[in-house]
Amino acid sequence: MLNEDWLLGYIVIFIFLICPFLVVIASIIDNNIVRGKINNLFDDATELTPNEFVALRRKLLSRRNNNSSGNTIAGVYVLYNKTKNMYYVGQSVDIIQRINNHFTGHGNGDVYADYKYGDKFTIKMIKFENSGFKTLNELERKTIYTYNAFSKGYNKTRGNSDR
Q1: pTM here?
Q2: Sign of CA dihedral 137, 114, 99, 124
Q3: Could you give the CA distance from residue 136 to residue 126 in angstroms, rounded to a whole number?
């Protein structure tokens, strides 16, 4: 009888103390894997200044107008304010147009104000296609998390849900 009580005690300790600890460890491991995946995607992305972005946009718009490339690019972009060390993460089915909106006063107002008053920015973009994420919303949420763009950046939300 005494051995059964000890066994029951160990089971209770395992369930209430060890299992939650294992869940936390699994969550930390998953977050590190996701951060690594996001970092790898953006490490491979070309970093552009706003002026370089404008030149790329003109080139792409010229191709669209000539019907040699009528497709838009769905993906996620990161705007990095080098002056303030702050990030903005966004997504769009047409990231070229959406990024342009931010630097022409039709996107995030704080990003535009900082850009207008001389802060230095860089831009990185990744295509959703072949990113390894199930949805564009998931890719954006994970990128916002990776760059702390909600808690320490320009993002006002943690991203869209997939519902």
Answers
A1: 0.81
A2: negative
A3: 11
